[in-house]
Amino acid sequence: MSNFKWWQTAVFYQIYPRSFADGNGDGIGDFKGITEKLDYLSSLGVDALWLSPHFPSPNWDCGYDISDYCNVAAEYGTMQDFNHFLFEAHKRNMRVILDLVLNHTSDEHAWFKESKSSHDNPKADWYVWADTPPNNWQSCFDGDAWTYVPERNQYYYHYFMKQQPDLNWHNPEVKQAMWDAARFWLDLGVDGFRLDAIGTIYEDPKLTPHNVPMNLAELRRFSELAKTPKEIKLKDKYWYDMFKNQWGQPAVHDLMKELRAILDEYDGDRVLIGEDDNISFMGNGADELHLVFNFPLMRADRLTPDHVRKNQKERLAQLDALKKERGWGCNTLGNHDSSRLYTRYGNKLHDTELARLHAALVLTLKGTPFLYNGEEIGMTDYMLTDISQVKDTMGSWYYHAIVTEMGVHPEEAMLRTAEMTRDKNRTPMQWSNNPNGGFSPPLATPWLPVNPNYKNGINVLDLEKNPSSLLNYYKHLLHVRRSSVALQTGEYIPLQTTAKEYLAFVRQAAEQTVLVILNFSEHPLEMDFTRSKEIKKRNLHLLFSSAERRGGELTSPFKIAPYEVFIAKVIHE
Ligand code: NOJ
């Protein structure tokens, strides 16, 4: 166990600061609110917190457009509030990682303001400038990727919104400035960074145009209307082709090495986690990132045993193949960019059972789990109904594009926007049955509407009181995981690999072997483990079952209940 780093055994919990807890009653989450909830997080049983950006920002992209890398957004508090929060989190043995956005800044950052002011200012080359748009590249958020600036009579490049100009990472001064910002937070004691959109840092130096016969808005609309397998295949190809020259450049590796070297200067095993699923960003296993997300696991409309097995087989083989040190996985089923797991993987009939099953999946697979705030209480996507409510600029841009350029009826456009905007999965955390779900005081107006289902028991306070609630289920599972060396560190050995309806695997550490069975079906199932060498003729000690079960005896046949989560320690005789 001692050979494992804290970030390998930890469970991370993502806090979306704007939506977590409003401590000063202005309708916006803040550090006061987060700090007040640390006891809740500690009792939940998570070990580390990832904060989405908390820096000053004009909020065109909800904080991912940073205007000062070494400060706290006034609406979230002060540096003092941040330091107090960090101190209190560490006091409770919780680590804290921040979101570091390297690819772009806000267009209101002083660097960009200076850069755009003339051709010959000291920061003239800090962003990516061109006299005329050199190609037809698109921004993945709002249309053309080149935006005109009259002061310079030039265009700048932005992979994301036009309010998020891309930095020119070929300029050593940019690197220096950003590494200084990283050090600023490391010096304060943060435990690492989640690195935003690293794949997009460099572009194809030849500036090769894309060859998709439509622009971004048209492609989004085309994708919504694609129904046949042929159309779906084509839209996937178009998405890839449209952006393939704007990301994935090999130069990112050297950059990650530089950043890793900085982190390694610090004590405490600070961690770097890439917002990318490409394992090559882990370098040789010791010289680039510590973790990248296993996004392919969540890229499915429905999670099936086959999908999970295939995913684990591929990922774990790639991680094992790193040249110097074995890589470590990082599993998640939700974040601030994706539909909430309760909604996305639900089937409308057994949503709660499925949510429980999927939580168990992410908490028992090999690798570091990341949870997204609110999933532990079963928060669902909330569909906005009026364009004036939409805060995610990507959503409002799309609404206006399809209404004005494509003549889509506003009602239909709003339905589509509600589906595609990330606002649906960023609504305020539901703490209680009080007005505003206890997120903000009753008279405040939260920045996004609170999902009214907080009144129907989907809130922390009500769920805490109910021993069989989803929240208490998470707590129980997190406790089981924390107490099991095999679940935290053991190898993953799949069993019965052709089973269509259930997933069975063993997690094996030197000190302990644990059997996990997850029934993905609505039926009771029977199975037989007498031929599985990892567990045959051994006794089981039940650690956890979501069904009513007393002992963990390994009967033959072995029966499990619909959607049952069964976790047991294998007793070596
Ligand atoms: C990825 C972040 O997760 C997303 O929320 C953001 O909009 C983009 N990167 C741009 O920073």
Description:
32% of the residues lie in helices and 15% in strands. The longest helix has 17 residues, at 172-188. α8 (216-225) packs antiparallel against α9 (229-243), α14 runs parallel beside α18 (470-482) and α15 runs antiparallel to α16 (410-420). The protein contains 19 helices and 20 strands. The radius of gyration is 24 Å and the shape is globular. The mean pLDDT is 96. The strands form five sheets. The chain has an eight-stranded parallel sheet with strand order 11-10-9-3-2-1-13-12. Among the domains are: 6-102 and 172-204 and 250-373, TIM Barrel (Alpha-Beta Barrel), CATH 3.20.20; 110-157, Oligo-1,6-glucosidase, domain 2 (Alpha-Beta Complex); 490-570, Golgi alpha-mannosidase II (Immunoglobulin-like). With 573 residues, it is an alpha/beta fold. The two termini are 23 Å apart. The structure holds 1-deoxynojirimycin.
- Which regions have little confidence, pLDDT < 50, spanning 5+ residues? none
- Please identify the top-level CATH class of the domain at 6-102 and 172-204 and 250-373: Alpha Beta
Number of beta-strand segments: 20
Measured between the Cα atoms of the first and last residue, the distance is 23 Å
Structural class: alpha/beta
Shape: globular
